[in-house]
Predict the structure.
Amino acid sequence: TWLNFNLYYQDHIDQLPTLGLDPTSQGNNTNTVQIRAPQSRPSSSPDDENASMTVVYEWLVFRLPFQLHLGWALFNVILSLSEMAVRYEWIIALPQISILSLITLWLIGIFVLFIPKYPVFAVPLMIAWSVGGVWINLVVNPTSESAAIIDIYDDLTINRFYGGIIATTVEHVVIASIRFIYYFANSYSLLHR
C-alpha cells in the first residue's frame, strides 16, 4: 500500500483537473489512448466545508512554531550581543548598545507586522514576552548577574531602559492585536457563512 506522509496531499491531487487520457489495451495487445470526459466533483464536498479549519490547523502546526522560533532567535541574537558588550567591558558604548537593542527589537516587531503581504503576528508577541521577561529579571526578581548589570548604569539610564522595555512590551502587544483585528476584518467575511 502507498502511505501518504504529506497531509492533505492526496486530496489536493484528486482535485486537480485531468486531461481525461486513460491508456487502455484493445484488440491485439497494442496500447492505445482513449479520451474520456473528466469527472467533476460535487459542488459541496466535505473538503470545501472544512477548508477554513484546514487553514487554521495548517497555521498552528506548520507556521506558528517557526514564527515563534524566529522571534525568539532574533531576541536571543540581540540579547547575546548586549551580554557580549557587558562581558568584554565596552563601558563607553554600553548605554548606546542597550538603547540600540531596544530600538532594533521595536523595529523588527513593526516590520513584520506592516511590511510583508501577510503579517507575522507571532514575532512581535514573542519579542514582547521576551522583553517583559528581561524586565521581570531586572526589576522584580533580580539575580547577582542582573544586579551587576544594573550597577554599570546610572539611575537616569536605568529608568530610561525600564521605560523602553515597558513601552516595547505594551506597544508590541497592542499594535499586534490591532493589526490582527484590522487584517482579519479586511481578509475574512463572517457574514457569508
